Amino acid sequence: MHKNLIAGQWVDGQSERVNLNPSDTNDQIGRYAQASVDDTLAAIDAAEKAQPIWASLSLQQRADALEFIGTEILSRRQELGTLLAREEGKILAEAEAEVSRAGQIFKFFAGEILRPQGEHLDSVRAGIEVDTFRLPVGVVGIISPWNFPIAIPAWKIAPALAYGNAVVFKPADLVPGSAWALGEIIARAGLPDGTFNLLMGRGSVVGQTLAESPRVKALSFTGSADTGRRILLSAAPHLTKLQMEMGGNNPLLILNDADLEQAVDVAIQGAYFSTGQRCTASSRFIVEKGIYRRFTDAVQEKLRALRVGHALDPQSHIGPVADKTQFEQNLADIDASRNEGAVLAFGGETLTRETPGYFMSPTLFVDADPRMRIAQEEFFGPIACAIPADDYDHALQLANDSPYGLSAGICTSSLKYATHFKRHMESGMVMVNTPTAGVDYHVPFGGTKGSSYGPREQGRYAVEFYTRVKTAYTRA
């Protein structure tokens, strides 16, 4: 059984979880420990004791540790990518790309350790100098989702460690394998015992304990909006610093002047790759009427050419849905959309393959009403809808009519509309002629409205969440 890591020791849990391959449910990946409340409290205690020791190490020692982690991840790209594909269902090429990103993230933040931020200023008062510098916040709780089981943990853990914090990490219960492999690498990187702790288990047990603890000074969460709200209520009494990414219903505008072939490619990549299981996936194709039928017909033609299959099959373009629960939810969402009056133009079917798994065809609804659930809520699967728009202004209005605001895209050859869209689209990230799903690790990530809460993730902007600023005055 794969154990939890607490205070530098691998320890049993109160129970265990069997990890199954969604491409082949006969394939058991392994058994993983399930942490208890007491385990979580012990990990918080260990992190609290280790944090000042870790923060006191030299910049070079901390940078070397993160460099070691990044280098090993990259050297094991194929092995870890295969594990990720088996447990989460991404096709192997996508899984290996995700592993590479995780390694690159650790290397990026190894470099950031050697570029500490601060200022030396003259005071407005004569004879006084002012210094500002950043300090770690202390113990950081990290709760990650199942759809990016190594990249999202990496972009949270790496900056937390880089800026001198100690970590208690709870991965998604559905995908413990990639998290355990990452934790095992970190455990060999020379960090003081307790600096990094891995707790696999239920969110209602481990996550709730982290959210309720006054000793957890900052908590970074990626998951559903409902869970994010519960974390907010639990953490508020202790004034815990929060960073939460909670999904989206992301629009892709297609204007009459768009390059049709490019627009279809952008739509397919954004909506359906990674089985649509991305918080930045394109959910709504908002299409000007002059190109609407040509675009929707071309999307269907492209979908017919996509192969859905086993994640490790090199012929597969799209893998399975991650588990039975999500699979059944996707089918229920498709039925609900049909009942509301959206026209099912393509897909929406369960598929049978050589191995038992959670396979479904990519799904396109057309002529959707912007008030329908499919146009307002997050459907976390290979499901998208097309909505006709009268013109650009109408398309932008429809795009902004959402409780979410994570990522949004536009396909157009007009510099005028592209520039206006970048300024007036109510989302944290905007894409022009490129898929809504697909971001870089060295720039800020996050949204507006119901999509995000707290400081941005990734890149140099991560320093805002994982540190606190101190100002010091000195009379010469």
Overview of this protein structure:
InterPro entries: Ald_DH/histidinol_DH, Ald_DH_C, Ald_DH_CS_CYS, Ald_DH_CS_GLU, Ald_DH_N, Aldehyde_DH_dom. Keywords: Oxidoreductase. The protein has 476 residues and is an alpha/beta fold. The chain has two domains: 268 residues, 3-Layer(aba) Sandwich (Aldehyde Dehydrogenase, Chain A, domain 1), CATH 3.40.605.10; 183 residues, Aldehyde Dehydrogenase, Chain A, domain 2. It is built from 15 helices and 24 strands. The strands form seven sheets. Strands 14-17-18-13-12-20-21 form a seven-stranded mixed sheet, with helices on both faces. Strands 9-8-7-10-11-23 form a six-stranded mixed sheet, with helices on both faces. Helix 3 packs antiparallel against helix 6 and helix 7 packs parallel to helix 8. The chain is globular. The N and C termini lie far apart (61 Å). The mean pLDDT is 96.
Q: Would you give the CATH topology of the largest domain? A: Aldehyde Dehydrogenase, Chain A, domain 1
How many domain modules? Answer: 2
Helix content: 25-40%
What form results from the Cα inertia axes?
A: globular
- In terms of DSSP E residues, the strand content is 15-25%
Distance between the termini: 61 Å
Keywords: Oxidoreductase
Family: Belongs to the aldehyde dehydrogenase family.
Organism: Marinobacter halodurans
Protein name: Aldehyde dehydrogenase family protein
Reconstruct the topology from this structure.
Blueprint: E1 4-6, E2 9-11, E3 15-21, E4 24-34, H1 37-56, H2 59-75, H3 77-88, H4 92-113, E5 118-122, E6 128-136, E7 139-143, H5 151-162, E8 166-170, H6 176-187, E9 196-198, H7 203-212, E10 218-222, H8 225-235, E11 241-245, E12 250-254, H9 260-272, E13 282-288, H10 292-304, H11 324-340, E14 343-346, E15 350-351, E16 359-360, E17 363-366, H12 373-376, E18 383-389, H13 392-400, E19 404-405, E20 407-411, H14 415-424, E21 429-432, E22 448-449, E23 452-453, H15 463-466, E24 467-475
Parallel strand pairs: 7-8, 7-10, 8-9, 10-11, 12-13, 12-20, 13-18, 17-18, 20-21
Antiparallel strand pairs: 1-2, 3-4, 5-6, 6-24, 11-23, 14-17, 15-16, 19-22
Helix pairs in contact: 1-7, 2-4, 3-4, 3-6, 4-5, 7-8, 9-10
